[in-house]
TrEMBL record:
This is MGMT family protein. Keywords: DNA damage. Residues 6-85 form the Methylated-DNA-[protein]-cysteine S-methyltransferase DNA binding domain. The lineage of its organism: Bacteria, Pseudomonadati, Pseudomonadota, Gammaproteobacteria, Alteromonadales. The keyword DNA damage applies. InterPro entries: ATL_DNA_repair, MethylDNA_cys_MeTrfase_DNA-bd, MethylDNA_cys_MeTrfase_DNAb, WH-like_DNA-bd_sf. It comes from the Bacteria. It holds the Pfam family DNA_binding_1.
DNA sequence: AGGTTGACGAAGT
DNA sequence: CACTTCGCCAACC
């Protein structure tokens, strides 16, 4: 039995389209959990593989990758982003260019709550 | 039950 | 910019 909060977070992240990114805080807000950005990170760490949650599209509020530079996870994330033509420079993405602007109506439809 | 943790964030220096 | 400090709070010991 997994927490309902985790599931809501997973589903919200799944709504982020390819080529766009979101921040931990933004996901928390959209998931109905304002102020719980840290929970988003934890939830992503426990996401079941079969859901195919695009965890790599989630960044810190300043656009930086959340993992230490050079770590395996960070390198993997950068690679996945670049495959979607999201530019990563100095461990950071320019949010102004690629940050997700969710269509709330559409989003709420796809969400299980 | 109570203490610790952490894929965060905002504000300050 | 980089770095610190502090607030946050569900999940997990």
């Amino acid at each position: 039995m997994v927490s309902a909060n985790y599931q809501r977070i997973w589903h919200t992240v799944m709504a982020v389209p390819p080529g766009r990114v979101a921040t931990y805080g933004q996901i928390a807000d959209l998931a109905g959990l304002p102020g719980r950005a840290r929970l988003v990170g934890k939830a992503l760490g426990h996401a079941p593989e079969h859901l195919k949650v695009p965890w790599f599209r989630v960044l810190r509020s300043d656009g930086k990758i959340a993992f230490p530079p050079g770590s395996d996870t960070a390198c993997q994330q950068i690679g996945l982003l670049q495959e979607e033509d999201v530019a990563v420079l100095n461990h950071r993405v320019r949010l102004k260019q690629v940050q997700w602007q969710p269509d709330l109506a559409t989003l709420l439809q796809g969400l299980p709550y």
